[in-house]
Amino acid sequence: MPQADRFLRACRREAVDATPVWLMRQAGRYMAEYRALRERYSILELIKNPDLAAEVTLQPIKAFNLDAAIIFADILPPLEGMGLSLEFVKGDGPVIGNALRTAADVAALTVRPPEETLSFTLEAIRLVQAELGGRVPLIGFSGAPFTLASYAIEGGSSRNYVIAKSMMYSQPQVWHSLMDKLAEVVGAYLRAQAAAGAQALQLFDSWVGALSPADYRAYVLPYSKKAIEIAKSGSHVPLIHFGTGTSGMLPLIKEAGGDVIGVDWRIDLAAAWQQLGDDVAVQGNLDPVVLFAPLPEIQKQAARILDSVKGKPGHIFNLGHGILQHTPVEHVAALIDFVHEHTRKG
Fold first, then answer.
1. One of 9, 25, 30, 161 is an active-site residue; which one?
2. Is 29 one of the annotated active-site residues of the chain?
3. pTM score above 0.85
4. Are 220 and 226 in contact (CB under 8 A)?
5. Which one in 110, 149, 154, 199 has a CA-CA gap of 20 to 30 Å to 68?
6. Residue 182 Cα distances to 150, 153, 261, angstroms
């Protein structure tokens, strides 16, 4: 089986010759090649220059035997296109200068076509596809409505999401208006990435584990569902729906949509798949910190995950979240090779 087919076949729950593997944040600070570029360019300069974004996307594909590439971008630029200011501040991470606080703030947000506001990422996808030449598939992605809403309201990262959840509870009409706009933006952006050449899509709901299942159903699920439906309209590419801290709401995540459900390390993969049912593929779920362990421990932990779902079509190996800074590059290479060797058939 050509390596180019392995990841997409697993997305469709078809038989594969070995479990496919890619890693969230596989292009990033743990690689010396990326750090060299960051000494010359800010993260937004890398993202907004299609040639540079394409170069970063391809760095891990050239370095490792991965089964998919993922476009180098960030989840927050769609907020800029709606009228919010975005900068990355050293030590603080992303900062939204004009965070949303009132009904008037939300009403002022614009919903514009991604071809106008995010053309740099769409062009980067086209450049990467030309360079890949069918070697492995390319994944496009977006942040999910809840995670984007939380950033936009909090003004940056948060531990307890007090401001965002307070708006959700105390100004539900404003919340629903915001989420509806975000669902349109996210869905159109994902659909445009598929049109530009992405062969799979991932919806990142990185912060959704802050919610109770009841609040997820009432305040989030309809909008994630709407974004996914827009993304898949006119496109048949598989969509991965990923969130962290979602062990208590996996059936709801599935209900919102997705051909593949991403699972973090806080639940056994086999138990998660049992909750989800056999009509979806699963992605995950090694703890990213395991990559700092000695190689025998990395292999032991990976084997435990792989063996727990052995022989079941539809597993894509990944971490439970993104690769961490300072992760040893040789451990990443060893993990990828081990996944293939441990699961290779014939």
1. 25
2. yes
3. yes
4. no
5. 149
6. 11, 13, 21
Catalytic residue, candidates 38, 112, 217, 266: 38
Which residue is catalytic, options 29, 101, 112, 266? Answer: 29
Tell me the residue type at 249. M
CATH number reported for the structural domain that contains residue 58 in this entry:
3.20.20.210
3-class SS of residue 257: coil
The number of folded domains in the chain is: 1
Q: How far from 115 is each of 72, 188, 192, 196, 312, CA to CA, in Å? A: 17, 9, 7, 10, 39
25 in catalytic set: yes
Q: Are 181 and 242 in contact (CB under 8 A)?
A: no
pLDDT less than 70: residues of the chain: 1-2, 346
| Digit-coded pLDDT (tens) for 36-57 | 999 999 999 999 999 999 999 9
Answer yes or no: 159 catalytic.
Answer: no
pLDDT digits (tens, 9 = 90+) for 142-190: 999 999 999 999 999 988 999 999 999 999 999 999 999 999 999 999 9
Range of the domain at 49: 3-343
